[in-house]
């Protein structure tokens, strides 16, 4: 069965988008990218990540004030 995963770890989301792991963690810590916490694991929904990428296209993701939060 080749089901598409709807949730990704921070590492998988970073690999999928080309955003560095540390930057992805900052986005989560800043509250710009909502996540699901399962114990110590952080899960990012694929649709949320896609929305985040669309909303923040052309923005500097290293500048906390420039990044738009998604819900």
Automatic annotation (TrEMBL):
Domain of life per record: Bacteria
Helix-turn-helix domain location: 8-54
Protein name as catalogued: Helix-turn-helix domain-containing protein
GO molecular function, one term: DNA binding
InterPro entries, A to Z: DNA-bd_dom_put_sf (IPR009061), HTH_17 (IPR041657), SinI_DNA-bd (IPR010093), Tn1545/Tn916_Xis (IPR038148)
Signal peptide location: none
């Amino acid at each position: 069965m080749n089901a598409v995963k709807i949730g990704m770890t921070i590492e998988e989301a970073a690999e999928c988008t080309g955003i560095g792991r540390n930057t992805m963690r900052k986005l989560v810590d800043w509250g710009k990218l909502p996540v699901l916490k399962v114990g110590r694991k952080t899960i990012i929904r694929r649709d949320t990540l896609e929305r985040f990428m669309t909303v923040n296209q052309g923005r500097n993701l290293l500048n906390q004030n420039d990044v738009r939060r998604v819900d």
